[in-house]
Every structure is written in C-alpha cells, then in structure tokens.
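Ops channel
N.P.: pipeline sanity check, posting one input/output pair.
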C-alpha cells in the first residue's frame, strides 16, 4: 500500500490478522485505532473496520473461515 492509501471500512470476513511486513499502518474500528509497524501483528476486530498506510507498506492478511 502506498502512503496515504486505505482500504475503506468493511466487515470482518472471519477470524483474521494483519501482519505489517514493511512500513506502518493504522487499523480503525469505530472510535478505536491501532498503529502497527514492521513485524507487528494486529487482530482484526469483529466489527466494521478500515486500514490505512501511514507510509509505504506491505501487509499480510490471514483469514480463517470458521464453520
């Protein structure tokens, strides 16, 4: 993701995490937000949320669809 780019608010697709591989990113859910830098792992909240790149970043999204 380029600095300033964002993924608009969306639903959680299942149990999910976002690992920042490079750069810095912010996850926002309602009035809460979490900042992460390279090496950090964020647990995606079970609510609508968005993600924005605070600088040029690479992130890895991992999703587990529970049955």
């Amino acid at each position: 993701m380029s600095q300033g780019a964002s993924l608009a608010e969306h639903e959680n697709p299942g149990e999910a995490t976002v690992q920042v591989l490079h750069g810095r990113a912010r996850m926002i859910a309602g009035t809460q937000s979490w900042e992460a830098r390279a090496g950090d792992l964020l647990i995606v909240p079970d609510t609508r949320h968005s993600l924005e790149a605070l600088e040029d970043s690479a992130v890895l999204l991992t999703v587990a669809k529970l049955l």
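N.P.: looks fine end to end. The beta strands are 6-10, 15-22, 24-29, 32-37, 41-43, 49-53, 58-64.
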